[in-house]
Amino acid sequence: MPEHSERFIVDLSGPRVFYCADMAVDLMVRSGASHHIEFKSVEGSLIYWDGRLCSVPDSRQAIFRDQSLSRAEKGQMMRFLKLVQAHIASESDATLSCEGPLGISPEDLKIPFYNFLLKQKLPPKIRT
Fold first, then answer.
1. Where are the bilayer-spanning segments (predicted)?
2. Domain that holds residue 20
3. Using an 8 Å Cβ cutoff, are 98 and 88 in contact?
């Protein structure tokens, strides 16, 4: 051990994930600790779920490759994404109506997004 070992700490537990706007990152940069650590950008969308970091599927293929979702959850997620896709398409084409079984009603557009997800009866794993 070095002579003045109480002046530093070695973290052997592995890499840490911080949001780029996190106060801890700001503190490390202001204190100069950032000169001794390596920051690496994480590509893709991640979420902290059930005690671990999971990637968020970003395509149809990624949804069906995902092992953490059940077959029913994959179906629910695809139906929800088709609903949103139909709504976006109807907004870009003024001749289509966004109301009805394939669109999002104007009332649903006024409620908070989390409440909309609850109304769509999506399971917690997908709502997060």
1. none
2. 5-55
3. no
